[in-house]
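subagent[fold] <- orchestrator: predict structure for attached chain, return tokens only, no commentary.
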Amino acid sequence: MNYIRNAWEKVPVMRVFIPFLVGILLAFKYPYIPVSLGISCAICTLLLSWIINKIKTTYSYRLRYFQGVFICISVISASYLLTISNKQILFKNHFSKIAGENSILVLKVKETAEEKEKTFKMVCKVIAVEDSGDINPSMGKLLTYIRKDSTAERIKFGDILVCQNKSTLVDEPKNPGQFNFKHYLSNKQIYQQAFLDSSNWNYTGDNKGFKVLSFIYDLRVQIVQLLETNIKGKDGSSIATALLVGYKAELSDELKKSFASTGAMHVLAVSGLHVGIIFIVFNFLFKGLLKKRRWKWLYLVLNLVLLWTYAVITGLSPSVLRACSMFSFVIIGKHWRRLPNIYSSLITSALFILIINPYLVTQVGFQLSYAAVFGIVFFQPRFYSIISMKKLWLTDKIWVLITVSLAAQLTTFPLAIHYFSMFPVYFMLSNLLVIPAASIIIYLGFAYLLFEAFGLSFISKYLVVALDYIIGLLNKGIILIRDLPNGLIEEIQLSSEMMILIYFIIFSLALFIINKQKIYFYISLASILLLVSFFTFWNISNRTNQRVVIYSIPNSTLIGFFDGKSVAFLGDSAILNNYELRRYNTFRDLWRHGCKTENVVDIPIGSSYNSHHLFIDRYFIQFMNEKMILYNGAKKYESPEKVDCNKLLIYGDRYIDFELLSSAFSAENIILDQSLNYRKIRALVSQCEKRKWKYIDLKNSGALVIE
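subagent[fold] -> orchestrator:
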């Protein structure tokens, strides 16, 4: 354990960062602990540590451990309070608590609007609520969708809008395993959304945005328009805007899929690579200022201002915040001639970012960015030293790229599998292509923008041709790697517990190889045994999994029959033939139960099917002891006796004869499918309540899971 003890001493900021992170996680888990208790705890522990520090006796040395514990508790309490103070929904003046149905909301646009197919999407801050003539200052964020028109196109950062209160709560995921958009937005302090057409809002023409930020956002829009105009092809221009300014709205789904499946998606997200290149350029341009002592302050200020200006232009993503924070500490350290330890810079930057916004720790980009950099710092020098390639410049640079890619992948793959359920096999090959290509594109792109800004079009026109050519080569190379056989391992499920155990295995084995201390080997062995136990338990539970899921998918009917690791889907042709819709709504549910999509049996409604536990005769279904009937109003039932069933699923767009329904069936529950239109659902709900039938509306309740 000497290695960890030495690291603890060499990176003292860890003593603050770990309890700070614990406090944030406690606030996520227990957000309703009284604030007064947290304040009292912080004050008392700080007071006790101060008292221990002032004791001038032989016992003071023995009590130093208690002093450390008290300081840790005070840091935990402080970070807990900081996290709670950032949770806007808890405040009394949050607009959701004071706005009624007839209220008027005064909005301030917080970011550049993102253009969708039919709407403009933007995040707005609710600054006031008007109700019955009274204007009350308010707070809170609102995810706003405004239908496209000539007025909506004028909206920009800082504009003040007035609208009717059309806000609604963000929906919970309707189907098991589906992406939780509500939870994702809540970590950004967004709890409600609003869809506005031209009659629901007014453009005031007033702008309250910070002028410097407004200028930067306008500059970003101009750069995007310039690149889209001069780069050939939509894919080429979208890659250029993503690489240079972090604008990814125009990236097609096919392009995203190609980069993701080859392990190159990180290049399209502005990250440390981009910020590092910008830092090198600025350092080259201003290094002359370092020759005179009185100009060193100007060098410091210019580098910091331009670095953070670029961060704002690219959207202040977690990876950019991390990179800019680290480079800022390096610049400041060089100015004071105190270069910090790389681990200290990494952890200090994380602490700095989390103090500003503790909820950033929940973002995948934040976690992947720090995991990748830590892997590069810790593993890359050790991988690089295995083989010496310094005799030839080219082979040395290739070996550097390989070791960097391998080190970053080693510390990010558990997170990537946990969140995205896939692993790109040819990640090393794609990184050998995309990292040099991306570097060239960034250099060429900023040179082009610089010459264009100074009106030197006789130079910029050649640069844009070269830029377009390199982007084309990059895109073709990515497609070539994507099409290689068995290039992507998909449908991998990794729970949080399994992911943490894999990290324990990676680092304990690494420390054992480095230090040859048996304790690390025992930790890795215990982690492996726990991982095998978790996997075995998960595998056994999946093999005994028997359930029915009636999914809640708009305008579609889909029922899943889970029997161990085999699944049969009964549905209409619209959903059975729509791969992307099924992927979004059902695939994660399959993967987390160990089911492969290639083994799923598709059964169109109206077909017959018979397996070990599942029997389907057109509209009559029996799975285990569960009897179900599908009814769309078309079939005439003339049986002298009622047909008994557990569930009666009403679907489709045909007329429903309630008298026939009542005389033909006896069901424990009536299920109202999402394929029914709004009016029919209202009529069915009215009839069910009138006849005192038990019913479940999938549109409101979400998918029905029958274990």
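orchestrator: received. Logging for downstream: The longest strand covers residues 119-131. The mean pLDDT is 82.
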